Structures are given as structure tokens and as C-alpha cells.
Amino acid sequence: MGLAGTADKWRGAAGHLRLMARALFLLAILLGLTSASRADGLLGATGYKMAGDATKMRIVMTFDHEPDLKWFLLRGPNRLVVDLPRTRFALNAKDVKPRGLVRAVRYGDQGEGSRLILTGKGPFAVDKLDVLKNDDGSGYRIAIDISAASEREFDEALANQSLTTGSTVSTDKGGRVGTGPVSAPGHRFTVVIDPGHGGVDGGAESTGGTVEKNVTLAFATELRDKLAAVGKYDVYMTRDNDVYLPLDERVRIARQHEADLLISIHADTIAVKGLRGATVYTFSDKASDPEAQAQADRENLSDQFAGMKIEDDNKEVTDILIDLIRRETHGFSMSFAHTLVGQLSTSVGLINNPQRSASFKVLKAPDVPSVLVELGYLSNNKDEAQLLSADWRGKAAQSITNAVALFAAAKAGARAGG
Predict the structure, then answer these.
(1) Nearest-angstrom CA–CA distance, 197 and 243
(2) Is the previous residue joined to 77 through a cis bond, with omega within 30 degrees of 0?
(3) 367: enclosing H helix or E strand
(4) CA trace torsion 167, 168, 173, 178 (10° rounding)
(5) Residue 121 gets which letter from DSSP?
(6) pTM for this predicted structure
(7) Cβ contacts of residue 254 below 8 Å, gap of 6+?
(8) pLDDT at site 1
(9) pLDDT in tens, 101-133
């Protein structure tokens, strides 16, 4: 009995030692893998993260030691190229999946060096590109901030690049916000019309089956044709068919066209019986009234209704989205809203206090004056009948066209006077 017990103890101890040996062997392999880049002289890229949306993104790549890099821009398509020393990339494929403003991510060895290529969804600006030491001292990271821009701005960056070399030194914050609401010389006054909702996101629906996405597209098309007929403006639409567009994509389109004005078209429903008429909204962090806040909440949730998950910024990316509209842009938005209310009052019915404000995401472009026009309420039979009337749409679209003419003239006068 005693000998059997001793044998069992020896077998147990031997098994334990074998397990420990295996664990040490696996640990040695892991340590070898993590130090392989050091052993063969390669830089180790150990992680990659992207956060943001179609208007502004932050890209972070981590390394085991400090990278010596150069970066530059290329067009056709619009790309940011980051040249690195020869690098061993140990990145998760899920992390590098393109999203937001980034249409494609490529990286790999180039023989004498390695390269990271970020392809934009249209033109963009490199707001900042820094090499930073990790807070825990474990290595370094490059942090890249990019934002949607116009072709003109991208071309200017290319021209500047030909005179200088890419650098990890960022521009000051004032130089990173964009061109602002003052357009470039030779630029025609540009209007972007945004028909609300679309595709899987139908928006509001009346009891009779009228769907908001169809009403907004029909009206936006009417408005586009009237503005184009003036012959003085460049006019674009965020969508011209039944397609789903996230809210940030709508803002991106306006910014990349250097829009002087974004007009977002909607037609909501509301539980308040008898309420009818048009409303003009501008952006504000604090809503002008509870009804305006409720309206903004409903519109801002459209991405979630369409199956998109809206994630809050984490601590690494809290500064990547511009949350406050520049004061000058906000002033232009308020000015146009006031003019628009005046013009609409002569042709269509308005609700009480028709100029309101709330935190609509689609109005958050920092350098594009923006308004959201609620044409009426599909929950009201009379409003619904008007929204379906070609004659009423024509009158309302003409009123908005008149307001655009007054606003464009005022901006031209302000530039000439300045």
C-alpha cells in the first residue's frame, strides 16, 4: 500500500513537471515571437485601431520601438502613404477593416522598407500625424487624424507637399478646422440638398401609407431643378434615388463639395393632434424647446433603425469629432434660417415659432452653414395632402429658391465689403 502510494506520488509529480515544462516551452515561444522583430532588426507593428465616421477619423498604429517614418499624399485615388523601416506586421484583420472616411487599408513589405497606405472615401485633409511614446512605456504609436475635405484642399496639400517633405509635426489647431464658410476664389455658390432617410430607413409614415423618404426625395428633386434653373449655383444632392445613407455620409458629401449651404429635407409625424406647418431648424447643443429636442432625437436615431451600431467615443478618440460649430458658420446658418422662414411664410403654412434649434447630427459640419427644413407633418391629413401636391411642392421649392438667392447675394456682398 505504501509503495503504491509512493509510486502514485512520483507519477503525479512527473506529470506536474511535464505540464510546467510545456508551459515554459510555450512561454519561450511567445517571448521569441514578440522579440523576433528585435532579433532580426525589424520594427514590430503590434496593433492598429480606427475610430470616427465619414467626416473625421483617427487611426492609431502601435510599435515595439520608435518608428522613423515619412508620409505623403497621392491622388487617383486619394491616398495617404506612410513609409516605414522594414516592419513585421502582427495586426488583427478585423482591426484593419476599412470604415468611415477610410475606404481601404493596405500594408506590407516593400523590399528596403515597409509601407502603410490609407485610401480615403474621396478627398481628405491630414489634420495631424504624430509619433508618440505610449503612456505605459511599452513602445510607440503613430496617431493620424484625417477629415473630409474638397478636391481643391487636397490639391493645395499636394502643391505644398511638392515644396516641403512630409513631417510628423502637426499644424496648429486653427489651421486644421477647414477653409470655413468663405469659399475659394472662382468657386460658384454651392448648395447641397439632403433628402432625409432612404433605403431601409423609411423615416416617418402616415396612417394612409405615405412614407417620408419618398416625400423628401420628390421635394428635393423639385428644389434641385429650380435652383439649377437659376444658372448661378452648383447644386448637388446627397442621394437622388432610394438608397440608405448614414448621417455622417451626408455631412461628408457637403464638406467635400465645399458647400456654401446644406439644406436637409424632412417630413415627420407627431403625436400632438392638430399640429401642422413647416419648421426650420439650425444646430444647437441645447434645443430651443422639448419638441425640437424630440425631433432631433428621432432623426439622430435613424442610423440605429437602419441596423448600424452607433458607438460612443472611447478615451483614445474623444477629440476626433468636432462637436461645436464654428461661430461664423453658426451665424450664417441662423441668418439663412431667418431668411427662409420669411420666404416660406408668404407661400406655405408655418407652425408657431417656426425657427427652432436642436442637436441634429446632419447639421454638425463645422464649416458648412446648414438648416433642416421640416416641410410638414405626415400625421396631419392636411399637411399630408399638401406634401403630395405637385402645386404645393412647386410653391414651397420656389420660396426656398428665393431665400437661397437672398442669402447668396448677402454672402457675396459681405465678401466684397470685406
Answers:
(1) 8
(2) yes
(3) none
(4) 50
(5) S
(6) 0.69
(7) 192, 194, 238, 262, 365, 368, 370
(8) 46
(9) 999 999 998 878 999 999 999 999 999 999 999
